[in-house]
Amino acid sequence: MRADKVRDAAYRMRHHVLNMGEAQGQGYVGQALGAADMLAAVYADQLNYRADDPHWDGRDRFLLSTGHYAIGLYAALAEAGIIGVDELDTYGSDDSRLPMSGMASYTPGVEISGGSLGHGLTVAVGMALGLRHQGSRARVINFLSDGELDEGSTWEGAMGAAHHRLGNLVAMVDINALQADGPTAGVLRTEPVADKWAACGWHVQRIDGNDVGALLEAFDLCDPDRPSIILCDTRIGCGVPLLEDREKAHFMRIDADEWQICRDQLTQNHEGVPA
């Protein structure tokens, strides 16, 4: 039942992403589609929040370090009832609360402004430490990209979290193997990445980030006595074969006649019909 709930949420979120992307004709659609299962697992299964009170003190904090994934986060916030689905139509427009890069000052439910990249984990460590000092049972879940593992500040945060044994901190890394300057392995090789996190003192799991069952099991196995990280191998454009095969996928330009094809393929895949 948990897995079905998350899969259905991810499906609706992917539709939201396509609808928002069509309004701009381009954007970080591939990343949002690839990370939809990760975001759905967080919002439909893990996160403790109140949709009508995004600033509730007892809430779990979800930090989107990768601000350009905001289109995916907005889809999750709409699915969670924190923002209205109708508001998604304003994505990226003048005076919208949904800018193309996530901004905490604009959007309900957005905890940090994401970017420059590489700052999210250090903020998460500070939040998790502060919540523990306050006696709060709330958790901090930090979403990072594999490209952010190039940043020294990420590893400073990793060592700090382990030093303070922050069992209320969970990090998720979207390993889609692509960043703005090209394939991640060609920009700066980070493998063996699991060994590096383990050496910093984290509880480490590496899974298929597009496998909902694996995501839920990974959350269930997080260590309450030290920080946990879930390394998620994902496919850019997941659920839409037309976009999974795009060569230039970091910032996608999608032709006007392709959007409905994308939606049709998404629906066919969800219903188990070959696209």
UniProtKB/TrEMBL annotation:
InterPro entries: THDP-binding, Transketolase_N. Residues 13-269 form the Transketolase N-terminal domain. Keywords: Thiamine pyrophosphate. SUPFAM superfamilies: Thiamin diphosphate-binding fold (THDP-binding). It comes from the Bacteria. Its cofactor is thiamine diphosphate. One of its GO terms (molecular function) is magnesium ion binding. Belongs to the transketolase family. This is Transketolase. It comes from Mycolicibacterium helvum.
